[in-house]
# Entry
Amino acid sequence: MKEKIETKLTQFPCPICGQYFVPYLSRKDGKAMCECPKDGLFETSIGVSKNFRKFCSRIARKPNRSPVYYTSMEYKIKKILENLGLIEGLDFWHNVRVKFNEKYYTWLDFYIPRKNLIIRASPSIWHVRWSRGDADDRIRKFLESKSLLVLDITEKTFNIEKVIENRIK
# Structure
């Protein structure tokens, strides 16, 4: 007697709450549309393997948000800020949570209160390859609506030191 094998449709995580949903529309360009009852519609890439998505979602659910832990890009930015004479904990903060309407909305990589400046370290593995563009745009618009300046630094940012220095001075 053959054992019945149950198959499931691939589900994709909502970029805001992390819950998984089956897409209601898949396109030929490798994109799919999903709907989260709480956070609304979101677009995702179906070109990334299911195992990679599971790996990323596990990491994203419990990221290391310790103020003393730095990714390589965050560490580079930290050193630039320190070379400009800024002191961590006094002039700038690392891994700061943003609360809005009694709910935590997002994490900020760096916050410089004196300049109302947010610096986001955006490695392409999380923000470009995983189709986080829409979520990043929503977060940027939200922060800018609160009169904050947002500076995105990626691996492709040319002359990071000058870009940061020009924003701070």
Observations:
- Helices lie at 50-61, 72-83, 124-127, 133-145, 160-168.
- The beta strands are 12-13, 20-21, 25-26, 31-36, 40-45, 93-100, 103-112, 117-121, 149-153.
- The mean pLDDT is 77.
